[in-house]
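Working notes for the structural subgroup meeting. M.R. asked for a predicted model of this chain before we commit to crystallization trials. I am recording the input and output together here so anyone reviewing the notebook later can reproduce the run.

Input as submitted:
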Amino acid sequence: MEPLLIVLIVLSLIFDFLNGVHDSSNIVATIISSRSLSPRLALALTAIAEFCGPFLFGVAVAKTIGSEIIPPDLMTLPVLLAALTGAILWNLATWYLGIPSSSSHALIGGLIGAVMAGVGAGAIRMAGLTKVFVALFLSPILGLLVGFLFTRLVYFLARGASMKINWFFKKAQVLTGMGLALSHGANDAQKTMGIITLGLVTTGYIKSFEVPTWVIAASAGAIAFGTSVGGWSLIKTLGAKFFCIRPVHGFCTQVASASVILGAALLGGPVSTTQVVS
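Returned structure, recorded in token form:
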């Protein structure tokens, strides 16, 4: 395995780790702010679910990132390294400043910019790029609509209920939170899988775009570890400064977000967890 490929794999896993750190707040902020779980337990359970997600829901997003935007035979390792470096620097800057930001947008933007500079705009497959843009654009809108409609349905079904129903929503939030973590791992870890596998194809290490099991395991482990480390300043921003979250709100948010993110993962659409949840 050539040195540049090793560097690419390491940088990809660093990006994956930072993605987990950056997005951990999106997964656990509602659970913590509604006091369904303690911060440490919420992060630990989320990390476990994040690790399992990539193994359960296929590699459709990885194939979109790694083979449908840019033809693998036109890609070079320096271009991939430039794309990753830009995405990592953006993630580090926004993490340091406590600004919620999309790792997906950073990676897609870095990849397109690097390809245009290093290979040429003609190398970009418009069908694949359109698929990505549609997923990124529609997912927050769908999140808003599903969240609104599901919340109205829950309020209708729970009309006349006593305050004890909050106990149910607190307990249910643990399950829905794990479902959201599963969907996040399934969608976001696949972006790293796509980059690593693209690098393996580019260097001839593998002949066709088939994600190896060790790439799935490494990507799942990196994003799970990042989630366990957590972004405490982002948790504070999303969970306390923006909204006064009750258990019912957290429950509805997680169900709606998990549905949209998991649906996108199964269809091969990379989405922004930050935008869908917010």
